[in-house]
UniProtKB/TrEMBL annotation:
Domain of life: Bacteria
Protein's organism: Lactobacillus nasalidis
Entry's family note: Belongs to the short-chain dehydrogenases/reductases (SDR) family.
Signal peptide: none
PROSITE patterns: ADH_SHORT
Name the UniProt record assigns to this protein: 3-oxoacyl-ACP reductase
Alphabetized InterPro entries for the sequence: NAD(P)-bd_dom_sf, Sc_DH/Rdtase_CS, SDR, SDR_fam
Alphabetized PANTHER family for the sequence: 3-OXOACYL-(ACYL-CARRIER-PROTEIN) REDUCTASE, 3-OXOACYL-[ACYL-CARRIER-PROTEIN] REDUCTASE FABG
Length: 242
């Protein structure tokens, strides 16, 4: 049985990824940071749709200590793939952000994903085909004002994936980044309808991405036939920016 771990499975993109991978025959660990009820509900829903697969909610605070990360990784059943779909931002000028806010964004988006990658490497290397996909951002390729730290973490995860992929490529273990542009998720709910309409007009495709349009590319990267694609950042942006 093939099993994937989706970090951030209760988010807008994470739920779309879970649905897509379930349709492709994957059993799933459905991670939440704090929203246990939503993770459990998603697991129940997918179990009803796919009774021959396993769907297990699992909780981990991405601000966890090294010891907590180690305990979490040690308690998992073997997985073939890991998808890092969690992420946070803080829309503000750098000069107005506290050191705590900066540290939190870096830890959730970059530091702890790298540490979890290290902890999960051993079991992934045992698989015939193993995969890691990080959710990056178009802002990792072209930084955004008011999201300088967020942009830095997303650029950092692309460079990390490029380098780390070269360490494990001989084992048919691929490491890639799917980097969305603007996506119609609750993360963008802070913006007014007018702002989102103006943004849509800047995008050559003419609209914000639907979460399922991002999930499609994650599913492709997890396919065993994608062994030769590794170390890449795939920008799914409707032609906007990168």
């Amino acid at each position: 049985m093939k099993r994937a771990l989706i970090f951030g499975a209760t988010g807008g993109i994470g739920q779309a990824i879970a649905s897509r991978l379930a349709d492709s025959g994957w059993s799933l660990y459905l991670h939440c940071n704090s929203n246990w009820e939503e993770a459990s509900s998603l697991a129940d829903q997918l179990s009803q749709q796919h009774p021959l697969q396993d769907f297990m909610p699992i909780k981990l605070n991405f601000l966890a200590s090294d010891e907590q990360l180690q305990s979490f990784a040690a308690g998992l059943l073997p997985v073939n793939a890991v998808v890092f779909a969690q992420g946070i931002t803080d829309y503000d000028f750098l000069g107005s952000q506290s050191s705590q806010t900066i540290e939190r964004i870096i830890k959730v988006n970059l530091e702890n994903p790298i540490k979890l990658t290290k902890l999960l490497e051993g079991q992934l290397l045992k698989q015939e085909h193993s995969r890691i996909v990080y959710l990056g951002s178009v802002y990792g390729g072209q930084g955004s004002a008011m999201e300088a730290v967020y942009s830095a973490t997303k650029g950092g995860i692309s460079r990390f994936a490029q380098a780390y992929a070269r360490e494990v490529a001989a084992s048919r273990f691929t490491v890639n980044v799917v980097a969305p542009g603007a996506v119609n998720t609750p993360m963008n709910a802070m913006f007014s309808e007018e702002t989102l309409r103006e943004l849509s007009e800047e995008i050559p495709a003419g609209h914000l991405a639907k979460p399922r349009e991002i999930a499609y590319w994650v599913d492709c990267l997890l396919n065993p036939e994608s062994d030769y694609l590794t170390g890449q950042t795939i920008y799914v942006s409707g032609g906007w920016l990168e």
